[in-house]
From TrEMBL, chains A, B, C, D:
Organism (species): Halovenus aranensis
Binding positions (substrate): E15, M111
Enzyme class, first EC level, given as a word: lyase
Family: Belongs to the archaeal dihydroneopterin aldolase family.
UniProt domain Dihydroneopterin aldolase MtpD C-terminal: residue ranges: 7-112
GO annotation terms (biological process): folic acid biosynthetic process; tetrahydrofolate biosynthetic process
Catalytic reaction annotation: 7,8-dihydroneopterin = 6-hydroxymethyl-7,8-dihydropterin + glycolaldehyde
Function according to Swiss-Prot or TrEMBL: Catalyzes the conversion of 7,8-dihydroneopterin (H2Neo) to 6-hydroxymethyl-7,8-dihydropterin (6-HMD).
Gene: mptD
Subunit structure: Homotetramer.
Entry-linked SUPFAM superfamilies: MK0786-like
Enzyme Commission number(s) of this protein: 4.1.2.25
Matching InterPro entries: DHN_aldolase_MptD, MptD_sf, MtpD_C
Protein name in the entry: Dihydroneopterin aldolase
Pathway it works in: Cofactor biosynthesis; tetrahydrofolate biosynthesis; 2-amino-4-hydroxy-6-hydroxymethyl-7,8-dihydropteridine diphosphate from 7,8-dihydroneopterin triphosphate: step 3/4
Amino acid sequence: MTDTTPTDAEAACFEAGIKFGSLYHQFAGTPVSPESAPSIARAMEEAIENQPHCVDVTVTPDTDRLAAAIAEGSASYTELTGEFMQVALTIEYEGVRVVAEMELVDGYPLMQPVSVTERE
Amino acid sequence: MTDTTPTDAEAACFEAGIKFGSLYHQFAGTPVSPESAPSIARAMEEAIENQPHCVDVTVTPDTDRLAAAIAEGSASYTELTGEFMQVALTIEYEGVRVVAEMELVDGYPLMQPVSVTERE
Amino acid sequence: MTDTTPTDAEAACFEAGIKFGSLYHQFAGTPVSPESAPSIARAMEEAIENQPHCVDVTVTPDTDRLAAAIAEGSASYTELTGEFMQVALTIEYEGVRVVAEMELVDGYPLMQPVSVTERE
Amino acid sequence: MTDTTPTDAEAACFEAGIKFGSLYHQFAGTPVSPESAPSIARAMEEAIENQPHCVDVTVTPDTDRLAAAIAEGSASYTELTGEFMQVALTIEYEGVRVVAEMELVDGYPLMQPVSVTERE
């Protein structure tokens, strides 16, 4: 019979996923411009760093893409989506460190775990 | 027969309401602590100031209430709701200036227009 | 000296605006497909009808636009934004009835009050 | 040297976490009452089932807790938080099935992976 109890590394990856889903869906839709992008990026970092096991979050807005999207439309701002930012975060859970990232792949903001390291 | 077309002052109040609903429901639920409250407050101000006809937004976090709520629970943060902030905003629309506020009244965050001034 | 106290009609329009801002920013970013659009539309109606002074909300998803947006991308769903729905709502506040709508105008989801009627 | 590349099971757990964070932070703050709880629960299920690798989501509102919370306050509704629902979801990713749940533990909505099964 197979043991299906999650390992600490699996639970750590689950925690990393929670942080990404939280960050994305809490803030997607926020009115954003190149000028206001730094403050929302900073708020996202500090908000998610409050969550359990989250030791670092870095949100890097892509102000060039923001400016281009705004230039195409009739408004002076747009709504925040994954195409306008890169995110990296680090989780530590029961001695396991997970680094995960969100980057644009074929125009779709792909979230994925990058490394899983168990402390010796 | 009665004309039911909204006046400029009524449309300006509608705009003020949009900004309050946006601000509240975009950010309610954000993980927040006394330490991270200033960055989310700043991001809320700058995000909503992007919206049309919105000339000023001031979000004042109530860090004492935040600290008290966190002290009651088992986590080191809580979720942002209207009880943890005061908000004032100013709209200008077609020569009408509306000031509106959100304050706690009987434990419920009440949003209301405070003044409607038509420029001479 | 001018009285700047908001009228009941102005306060009613403010309430209508709150509902639109709430509806939009609570649900923008939700993963949506033509198949799931009816359930989110229904939930939006019932959620906002809970709010004070709100007597009716109608959310009509534009499943053709949804299908077209999905066909353009690499995923089987998209994120809800104002371009994928029409909304109409009715507020009653202190004897004033306000009807407001959100419709696409030049590709931008425009929210506006449509009529303001004071009960005799 | 240690290989830190995530396993399929770890990536599957990351995916499960994303869905929980998405579900929670997309919908937290929604105005909810015992009457409207079924429609928001249904919308949450269908919205998150749109996301990649998500084969099933079950959201069970706790209408007794909702009614009790509303009875304590001055409004006829409250805002959705994790204390008002149980959630179970199933992810399938590269032959790995992950079941994860959210339940109240000491008043805090705890999300955790329950089982990780690799298809033979």
